[in-house]
Write a structure and sequence with these properties.
Helix content: 25-40%
Structural class: alpha+beta
Largest sheet: 8 strands, mixed
Distance between the termini: 47 Å
Order of helices and strands: HEEEEHEHEHEEH
Radius of gyration: 14 Å
CATH architecture: 3-Layer(aba) Sandwich
Number of helices: 5
Shape: globular
Amino acid sequence: MRLAAVFLAFVVLCGSAFGAELKPWAGGETPPLALEDLAGRTHRLADYRGKVVLVNFWATWCEPCRTEMPSMDRLRASLAGRLEVLAVNLAEPPAHIEKFSRAIPLGFRLLLDRDSAASKAWRARLLPASFLVDREGRVRYSAYGDVDWTSEPARRAVGELLR
């Protein structure tokens, strides 16, 4: 029953989250992140030290999530190896995610948060939830709602972390 209520809250909040802004992170220490991708390979945030990382929590049923993903991929591609994107799916069956990835091909990793533990640890209270992590592995910015990652403010925040 509790899981159903949480799921319903995500659906309601997800539908109303548009035009989010990146804000300085005030959430304390960076939570750990170690999740498998669709092929079963584990990806740890710590493995990406030295690069800026965009950690994005999403779901296939979340329209703003699907809307922002192509702009995340364009930003990642434009920064050729200096920005990594880890897109953490919120507890959906791998078959749903695979179907989504065939319909919208993306060049970044889709990770599985099977039990929602990562989304809880990162305080991803609504979807999409995004966190920009600096090269030392610290969260520096967060956004709740969809972001145009090719916009000037988003590119400026990423550029600041790349300097």
